[in-house]
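Per your request, structure below.
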């Protein structure tokens, strides 16, 4: 039952993405969809149906605010980097140390990314602060 609910929430969130992306806030809508999907799946796996709802809502809000779109997520999946070691918890607003190399997202001059702890984190390049993490992103095989 849990898997069915989580899968349903994820499918609904993904289906809503193209319809929402037609307005002027396309980046926020798609970022919200991506965040909602990731949050729902993670919340559902950890805390069950209630966690899926809470995680989906939280992820949607964070993804929409960060305006990280599906293209950026796909870009980092296709361009994995060597993971770095970062001590402590990484949350939205975390100031990325100067020792961590932030890689640019092609086609988006405002955000970059880095991998650590089996996750990818998107960073505001002006502030060097974490703005979003879609969770675990399966990197593509580099040939």
């Amino acid at each position: 039952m849990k898997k069915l609910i989580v899968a349903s929430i994820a499918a609904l969130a993904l289906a809503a993405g193209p319809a929402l992306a037609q307005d002027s806030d396309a980046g926020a809508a798609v970022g919200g969809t991506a965040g909602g999907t990731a949050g729902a799946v993670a919340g559902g796996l950890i805390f069950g149906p209630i966690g899926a709802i809470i995680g989906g809502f939280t992820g949607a809000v964070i993804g929409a605010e960060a305006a990280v779109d599906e293209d950026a997520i796909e870009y980092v999946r296709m361009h994995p980097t060597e993971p770095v070691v970062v001590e402590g918890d990484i949350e939205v607003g975390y100031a990325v140390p100067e020792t961590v190399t932030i890689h640019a997202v092609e086609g988006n001059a405002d955000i970059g990314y880095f991998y650590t702890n089996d996750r990818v984190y998107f960073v505001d390049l002006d502030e060097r602060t974490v703005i979003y993490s879609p969770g675990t992103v399966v990197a593509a095989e580099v040939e």
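The longest strand covers residues 108-116.

Regards,
D.
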